[in-house]
Design brief:
Methyltransferase, Cobalt-precorrin-4 Transmethylase, Domain 2; five-stranded mixed sheet; 19% strand; Cobalt-precorrin-4 Transmethylase, domain 1; binds S-adenosylmethionine; alpha/beta; single chain
């Protein structure tokens, strides 16, 4: 039974869950706190597709269990994510100190860690998330973008097609999971999908941007010896180039910020 306000005085060992991020670049992005969670847990679950990353985490703990085998071409990713959540919670319920390590930040475009923490807490277990360096953080550094300068919108690419969203073209638009569009939510999320879906994405973006607008296809380095992918292309060429699942598409602002003169006058009246 998990601890409650009434029964936690004797403090026997109850299961706990820590969802941590290991960052994007092998080795160098792991925070000391995330590392100590790995080292001090009873069991470590790992969600990272790279064999080298797996070997590295295995060097830090004797019981590392990869979540990768849960992916399958004939299974929806939602189902895979539910199985990941169940795998983590089974050990928490068995009284283990569980660390679940996800690449990047565990809470950025990642459903399973949020869901596992939600359920664990609902069941009365101690569960928390530790931030990691996400692809977003790398992107700001590698592309020299300050999200505060003109603002920054982040959308999952498929969501931009499934729903009617308003794009603010005076801010940056960052599109995640462009390479996974149109796979029907199946498979490993590591196989990039058809250019036909990108044609439709171009059509959608052309409602707000000229086809000649320069966009950036970005991929942060995952190994310290790698360099990032930074390909600047015209929007209309997005379907013509190779896109990997780890690529993120960055669309710079196409128009200047428009001052709200009415608001400015009101604010002026407030004085210094
Ligand atoms: C399921 S999300 C996971 C993101 C991860 N939790 C993070 O914090 O970066 C996968 C998407 O993240 C982005 N991504 C993952 N690895 C990346 C990399 N090395 N460089 C740029 N974007 C990356 C891509 O948009 C990819 O489709």
């Amino acid at each position: 039974m998990p601890p409650t306000a009434h029964n936690n005085r004797s403090a026997p060992s109850y299961g706990t869950l820590a969802c941590i991020g290991i960052g994007i670049t092998l080795g160098s992005h792991l925070t000391p706190l995330a590392r100590s969670h790995i080292e001090q847990s009873d069991v470590v679950f790992l969600a990272a597709s790279d064999g080298i990353v797996e070997k590295w985490i295995e060097s830090l703990h004797p019981d590392v269990r990869s979540l990768q085998p849960l992916y399958a071409a004939d299974k929806s990713r939602k189902q895979t994510y539910r199985q990941m959540v169940n795998a983590m919670l089974t050990e928490v319920r068995a009284g283990k100190k569980v660390c679940a390590a996800f690449y990047g930040h565990p809470g950025v475009f990642a459903w399973a860690p949020h869901e596992a923490i939600r359920i664990a807490r609902k069941e009365g277990f101690d569960a928390n998330m530790e931030p990691g360096i996400s692809a977003e953080d790398c992107l700001y550094s590698d592309l020299g973008i300050d999200p505060g300068a003109a603002g920054c919108q982040h959308y999952e690419a498929s969501q931009l097609l499934y729903y009617k969203r308003r794009i603010d073209t005076s801010a940056y638009l960052i599109l995640w999971q462009v390479g996974a569009m149109g796979d029907g939510g199946r498979g490993s999320a590591h196989a990039a999908t058809n250019a036909a879906y990108r044609e439709i994405l171009i059509e959608r973006l052309a409602q707000d941007y000229p086809l000649t607008h320069r966009i950036i296809v970005y991929r942060a380095a995952t190994l310290p010896i790698d360099t990032p992918r930074i390909d600047r292309i015209a929007l209309r060429r997005l379907s013509k180039i190779d896109i990997e699942v780890a690529d993120t598409v960055v669309i710079p602002p196409v128009r200047k910020l428009v001052p709200d003169t009415k608001m400015l006058r009101r604010l002026e009246k407030l004085g210094p």
